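Hey team,

Filing this mostly as a record. A colleague (T.K.) asked me to run one chain through the structure pipeline before their review meeting, and I want the input and output archived in the tracker in case anyone asks later how it was produced. No errors, nothing strange. Just documentation.

Input sequence:
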Amino acid sequence: MSTTVTIGPLYRADAERCAELEQLLFAGDDPWSAQAFRDAVTSGQAYLAARTDAGLVGYAGLAIVAGPPQAEAEVHTIGVDPAWQRHGIGRALLAKLLEVADELRATVFLEVRTDNEPARTLYERHGFEIVGIRKRYYRPSGADAHTMRRDRRGD
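Output structure:
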């Protein structure tokens, strides 16, 4: 696919498409509803969209959970349309989220399924390390999650 991908803000109008992608990507693990995306977008947190001429092909969200001087952020979600995976879109979305966190010098946390090797590898390449495990974290599947952390940047 040679189409240009742009990363920009996620809008309330994108909620239905995001929920559709959630159903494809996370069907067994309580996918977010369109309303959850609308709420997230209006929360004032960093929610991004990846778009091509075909429309929205990915999304990502970062919540700031504690402000400076000991800022912390949490990656809430990253999803890429299966037809567009392996084209660097997830990597680009994560990089943009981390730029937001780095501006605040925030430590960043996330959870990822223990069996999601591609995502865990992506996070490790961006400086995350496994710091714990959450048993039966995902519902209703009961899958375990690694808790990962990336120390703040900019010191």
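Quick notes for T.K.: Residues 5 and 70 are 34 Å apart (CA to CA). The mean pLDDT is 94.
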